């Protein structure tokens, strides 16, 4: 989205330049190279010596066509300033990672990652908020959210804690994860619990965020931010922290018994107290053995209210086409064999397809097929028996 927006902007800008009031003194060229993400500007007086400038100021590569036109040197300088003024704000929009505290360094390599010699500061939760009064989102939509962290000072005096870790953002359904380095620093008064805003990030509803390799490190009242290497003992390595997303719901369908489906409903965010209403009329969180097809559910938060005092609700739907209960195709049947006493007999079977995935269980009959009994632990595609079989 950012790439398309910038591309459109520059195409319009270059078109405007092309039709501006230009003198006949200078040629002007604007080139963009995908390599190293750099712009280059070329100018020359008539057919004289080419002057070349490189500006490496943009983060995301954008393909912009080169054009040459007659333009004055004064207008050329003006355009450079304009480009810088517009590109820098554009490149900062829609960032995936939160902004780190100024000057804060990653100190984790200085400490034993399995130790927690002090617990002056704890992380209560890390969560995402958006502009929606119910702080909800629809699965798959992209939105800007604020990442916030709530800390508690377990001591009676001021602490300057830094929370450091690796944030992993995994899209719904898997795929390539995004990694962010988190380095915060803040002030907590004695026995204080406080929430800090780490800034806005771009978030796709349904993605999973986890902070790993978490170091909580702090300065005492005589310290300040950023946190440097404090005296021994003023740190604690914590377990991974799952970031609480906005109020949302994911439907996970699987095959049920026969040609039916089961739906596992996972609700995230919100107060934790919910009611459910499915299109089938059922009010359980999950559905079992319902007809295959499209199903929807409305989840109501019994605690959270919107600005009108109405309970917060979200509705999600899913279509599951199966197939379920598909019989496998037998491609090889076992054949009868006559063996002498002491000789081995081998029987094989093979198949393709089938849903749910088929399993194999060999059986034996001692009364001409009237009754069958399982052979213990014989679940492979080939069964080998020796001539001493007593059944």
Summarize the SSE layout with pairings.
Layout: H1 2-18, E1 26-33, E2 38-45, E3 50-55, E4 67-70, H2 73-92, E5 121-129, E6 142-153, E7 160-170, E8 178-183, E9 193-204, E10 208-219, E11 235-238, E12 241-242, E13 248-255, E14 260-268, E15 274-278, E16 287-291, E17 294-305, E18 311-319, E19 329-332, E20 345-348, E21 350-352, E22 363-364, E23 373-374, E24 382-385
Antiparallel strand pairs: 1-2, 1-4, 2-3, 5-6, 6-9, 7-8, 7-10, 10-11, 10-12, 13-14, 14-16, 15-17, 17-18, 19-21, 20-24, 22-23
Explain this structure.
The protein has helices at 2-18, 73-92, and strands at residues 26-33, 38-45, 50-55, 67-70, 121-129, 142-153, 160-170, 178-183, 193-204, 208-219, 235-238, 241-242, 248-255, 260-268, 274-278, 287-291, 294-305, 311-319, 329-332, 345-348, 350-352, 363-364, 373-374, 382-385. It has 391 residues and is mainly beta. The chain folds into four domains: 2-92, no CATH class; 108-242, Sandwich (Immunoglobulin-like), CATH 2.60.40; 248-319, Immunoglobulin-like, CATH 2.60.40; 326-391. Strands 7, 8, 10, 11 and 12 form a five-stranded antiparallel β-sheet that branches.
| Low-confidence spans | 1-10, 12-72, 84-93
- Cα(first) to Cα(last) distance is 71 Å
Which class of the largest domain in CATH terms?
Answer: Mainly Beta
Structural class: mainly beta
Integer-rounded radius of gyration = 33 Å
What is the count of DSSP helices, taking H or I runs of 4+ residues? 2
């Amino acid at each position: 989205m950012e790439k398309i927006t910038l591309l459109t902007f520059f195409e319009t800008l270059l078109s405007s330049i092309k039709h501006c009031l230009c003198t006949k003194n200078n040629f002007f060229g604007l080139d963009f190279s995908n390599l190293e993400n750099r712009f280059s500007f070329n100018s020359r007086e008539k057919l004289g010596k080419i002057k070349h400038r490189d500006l490496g100021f943009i983060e995301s590569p954008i393909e912009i066509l080169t054009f040459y036109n007659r333009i004055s040197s004064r207008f050329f300088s003006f355009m450079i300033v304009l480009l810088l003024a517009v590109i820098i704000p554009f490149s900062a929009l829609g960032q995936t990672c939160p902004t780190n505290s100024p000057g804060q360094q990653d100190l984790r390599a200085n400490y034993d990652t399995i130790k927690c010699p002090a617990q002056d500061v704890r992380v209560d939760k890390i969560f995402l908020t958006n502009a929606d009064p119910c702080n909800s989102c629809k699965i798959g939509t992209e939105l800007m959210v604020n990442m916030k962290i709530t800390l508690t000072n377990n001591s009676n005096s001021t602490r300057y804690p830094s929370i450091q870790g690796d944030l992993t953002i995994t899209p719904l359904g898997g795929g390539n994860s995004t990694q962010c380095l988190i380095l915060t620093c803040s002030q907590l008064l004695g026995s204080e619990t406080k929430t800090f805003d780490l800034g806005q990030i771009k978030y796709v509803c349904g993605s999973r965020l986890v902070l790993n390799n978490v170091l909580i490190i702090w300065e005492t009242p005589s310290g300040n931010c950023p946190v440097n290497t404090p005296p021994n003992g003023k740190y604690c390595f914590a377990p991974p922290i799952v970031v609480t997303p906005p109020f949302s719901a994911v439907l996970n369908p699987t095959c049920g018994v026969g040609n039916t489906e089961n739906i596992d409903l996972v609700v995230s965010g919100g107060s934790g107290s919910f009611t459910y209403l499915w299109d089938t009329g059922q009010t359980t969180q999950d559905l079992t053995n319902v007809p295959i097809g499209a199903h929807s559910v409305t989840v109501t938060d019994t605690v959270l209210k919107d600005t009108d005092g109405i309970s917060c609700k979200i509705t999600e739907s899913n279509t599951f086409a199966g197939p379920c209960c598909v019989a496998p195709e037998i491609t090889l049947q076992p054949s009868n064999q006559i063996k002498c006493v002491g000789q081995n007999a081998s029987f094989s079977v093979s198949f393709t397809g089938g849903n749910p995935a088929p399993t194999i269980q060999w059986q034996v009959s001692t009364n001409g097929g009237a009754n069958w009994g399982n052979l213990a632990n014989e679940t492979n595609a080939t069964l080998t028996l020796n001539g001493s079989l007593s059944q």
